[in-house]
């Protein structure tokens, strides 16, 4: 009886409890959260669908930027983290700080956002995922956090399923999605045209793995029909695979597509851990995209405490002469060189080796005479005869110079003239070999006084099967960066993963290539509009070692076999020092060529590489960009304007100058008849007094541009 009486009572309590849980589940399921940017113009809405699928949407000034888009991840051999979620908790916080970068486009950076943190519980699997949305005035960043928990410890990612549902068939500035290269020309087309243009866009490269007829890379720059500029990228790519975007070209929905590793896995993660931030920068002004600091702000503050040894670098180098084919990296033409089985002293030199003592001294003299900080020397070390297009595990050793490169004497000579030699480590993609030699290579650099290294990853990654942008190889770049920091070495990585603002955390990452650089002007050419796009795409993640300053635009002048030409005017080569932001800038042409154009070369000598302030005076992706930048700690300004294949007149106001002061402007412009194909070297230099009230009207030739240095009258 007792038993019978208690049973219904217990039952009804349980029923009540169940009903409460169900009710709360219903409530949480239906829950939507809204959060605005500090200036209220961006609105992020988070919502769970009835099946527990997390979604988000973003508007800017009431206009849709990202329509309702799903979030989640698919796992290998485990239930997906894509649905069946309930909101356990959601909270909003605000953050506002101003920080000083070690080097940069501005003296200080404001990091101001409102953050929505949503704690998601997947009841069926007892797993938790936390979503973080940071809404800035210039855009949105969101990431997944996987807290430490019993039911989610080590897991393998099959695919991340973050969607970016666009509001229409936007104009896109895109590169073919590829696990191994970014060295493509940008295609400008509507999203609906990507599929039809993919094949032609996928030009050959030493290592390439395109993955889909509608896969594209980030940073992806978009423009909507109603004039919204949207940029999609990622920030703080650490211990994770690099994200591409797969396009659904019927509905204009982009979805994350991660780079697989050698086993086909897209991430090997262990809680507690986080994904990189997925970033969406948006504005109705193109210039705001260029000014955005969102990607940097989403990275952690510097982990390097003493940054006094990190300094911007202006350099020349034994480089373009090899790129054009005038000289060689290799010391001998003997083939089949196996490093450990060869004594270089016994081989016949080819007589074309660029990094020989006399030539390197010539560059050092030139650098010292014209005030450059450093000379890059490529081809100084043994192994260049037999590195390309093979999958050798043991390639370079990074410490053995060729017989005609006296490492001790050349570094002594350089240092005696106040110049440093920049080390070069081409790894030939053999990551294992580089790690094998890394300690001794960096010790070698410390011993001889090298403070910067240019690394390179040409060719397929060894161990084979890995990709340039997979998690394991990204971890390698990170390992090199941190090891370099321990040795007080600055890093400029070529063919490495595209930057994602990590230079905030590791400011010794002073450069990256990770796009089609000036070298391609010698490999067939870059499009005339190339540098009107890169600041909107590749540079959103960080500075690029673009290596401008080519005055001899006909490559055949150095190598009669090479008919490539530089697709810009000479004046525009000067503009690039301002428009292609980098704390590491090369004057890439040969000393003998600069000696013939010392008047134009003066701009490269004068231009700053570190800045207190940056203004975008004019900008339209694919058409033109004009920047003004104030030199760090000085009153002088530099202006650069880059232009596509059509001539135009740029109209700018110098209102950025301090009112009441007089300045002398030296204007390096295209001559009237200049043309990037027909008459690239025609330039004209003039001087005029200017003030903050001055307005300038300047003609830019097809494929041209201009550069201006503005120095306070009477200042030095
Ligand atoms: C490709 C790099 O981008 C280039 O600058 C370098 O000279 C070659 N690899 C050789 O390492
Ligand atoms: Ca390259």
UniProtKB/TrEMBL annotation:
Domain Glycosyl-hydrolase 97 catalytic: 319-515
Key word Protein biosynthesis present: no
Key words of the record: Calcium, Hydrolase
Official protein name in the record: Glycosyl hydrolase family 97
Co-factor(s): Ca(2+)
InterPro entries in the cross-refs: Aldolase_TIM (IPR013785), GH (IPR017853), GH-type_carb-bd (IPR014718), GH97_C (IPR029483), GH97_catalytic (IPR019563), GH97_N (IPR029486), Glycosyl_hydrolase_97 (IPR052720)
Domain of life, per lineage: Bacteria
GO molecular function: carbohydrate binding; hydrolase activity
Oligomer status and interactors: Monomer.
Record has Calcium as a keyword: yes
Domain Glycosyl-hydrolase 97 C-terminal oligomerisation, first and last residues per copy: 610-710
Domain spans labelled Glycosyl-hydrolase 97 N-terminal: 35-301
């Amino acid at each position: 009886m007792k038993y019978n009486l208690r049973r219904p009572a217990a039952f009804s309590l349980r029923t009540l409890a169940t009903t409460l849980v169900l009710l709360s589940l219903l409530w949480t399921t239906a829950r939507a959260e809204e959060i605005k940017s500090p200036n209220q113009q961006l609105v992020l809405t988070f919502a769970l669908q009835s099946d527990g699928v997390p979604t988000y949407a973003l508007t800017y000034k009431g206009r849709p930027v990202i329509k309702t888009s799903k979030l989640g991840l698919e796992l290998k051999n485990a239930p997906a983290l894509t649905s069946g979620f309930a909101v356990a908790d959601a909270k909003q916080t605000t953050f506002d700080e101003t920080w000083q970068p070690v080097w940069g486009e501005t003296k200080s950076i404001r990091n101001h956002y409102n953050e929505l943190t949503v704690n998601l519980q997947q009841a069926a699997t007892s797993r938790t995922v936390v979503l973080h949305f940071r809404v800035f005035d210039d855009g949105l960043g969101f990431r997944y956090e996987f807290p430490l928990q019993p039911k989610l410890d080590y897991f393998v990612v099959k695919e991340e399923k973050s969607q970016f549902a666009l509001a229409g068939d936007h104009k896109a500035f895109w590169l073919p999605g590829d696990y191994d290269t970014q060295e493509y020309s940008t295609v400008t087309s509507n999203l609906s045209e990507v599929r039809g243009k993919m094949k032609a866009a996928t030009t050959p490269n030493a290592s390439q793995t395109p993955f889909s007829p509608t896969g594209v890379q980030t940073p992806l720059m978009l423009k909507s029909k109603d004039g919204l500029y949207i940029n999609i990228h990622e920030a703080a790519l650490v211990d994770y695979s690099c994200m591409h975007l797969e396009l659904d070209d019927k509905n204009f929905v982009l979805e994350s597509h991660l780079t697989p590793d050698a086993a086909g896995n897209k991430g090997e993660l262990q809680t507690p851990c986080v994904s990189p931030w997925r970033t969406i920068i948006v504005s109705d002004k193109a210039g705001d995209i260029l000014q955005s600091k969102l990607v940097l702000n989403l990275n952690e503050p510097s982990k390097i405490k003493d940054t006094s040894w990190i300094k911007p670098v202006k350099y020349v180098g034994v480089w373009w002469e090899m790129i054009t084919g005038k000289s060689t990296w290799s010391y001998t033409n003997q083939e089949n060189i196996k490093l450990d089985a060869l004594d270089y002293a016994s081989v016949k030199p080819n007589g074309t080796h660029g990094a020989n003592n006399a030539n390197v001294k010539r560059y050092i003299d030139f650098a010292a005479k014209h005030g450059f900080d450093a000379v890059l020397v490529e081809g100084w070390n043994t192994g260049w005869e037999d590195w390309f297009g093979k999958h050798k595990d043991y390639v370079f050793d990074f410490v053995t110079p060729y017989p005609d490169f006296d490492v001790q004497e050349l570094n002594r000579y350089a240092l005696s003239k106040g110049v440093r030699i920049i080390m070069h480590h081409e790894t030939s993609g053999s990551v294992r070999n580089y790690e094998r030699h890394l300690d001794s290579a960096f010790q070698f650099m410390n011993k001889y006084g090298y403070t910067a290294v240019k690394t390179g990853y040409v060719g397929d990654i060894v161990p084979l099967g890995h990709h340039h942008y997979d998690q394991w190889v990204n971890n390698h770049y990170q390992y090199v960066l941190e090891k370099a920091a321990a040795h007080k070495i600055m890093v400029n990585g070529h063919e490495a993963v595209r930057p994602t603002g990590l230079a905030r955390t590791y400011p010794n990452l002073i450069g990256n290539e990770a796009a089609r650089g000036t070298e391609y002007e010698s490999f067939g050419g870059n499009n005339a509009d190339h540098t009107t796009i890169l600041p909107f795409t590749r540079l959103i993640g960080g500075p690029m070692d673009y290596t401008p300053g080519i005055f001899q635009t006909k490559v055949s002048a150095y190598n009669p076999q090479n008919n490539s030409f530089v697709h810009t005017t000479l004046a525009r080569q000067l503009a690039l020092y301002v428009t292609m932001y980098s704390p590491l800038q090369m004057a890439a042409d040969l000393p003998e060529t600069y000696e013939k154009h010392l008047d134009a070369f003066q701009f490269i000598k004068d231009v700053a590489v570190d800045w207190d302030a940056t203004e975008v005076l004019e900008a339209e992706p694919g058409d033109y960009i004009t920047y003004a930048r104030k030199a760090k700690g000085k009153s002088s300004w530099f202006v650069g304007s880059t232009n596509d294949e059509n001539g135009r007149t740029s109209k700018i106001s110098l209102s950025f100058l301090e009112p009441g002061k007089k300045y002398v402007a030296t204007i390096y412009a295209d001559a009237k008849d200049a043309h990037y194909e027909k008459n690239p070297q025609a330039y004209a230099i003039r001087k005029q007094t200017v003030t903050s009230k001055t307005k300038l009207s300047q003609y830019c030739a097809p494929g041209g541009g201009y550069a201006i240095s503005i120095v306070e009258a009477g200042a030095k």
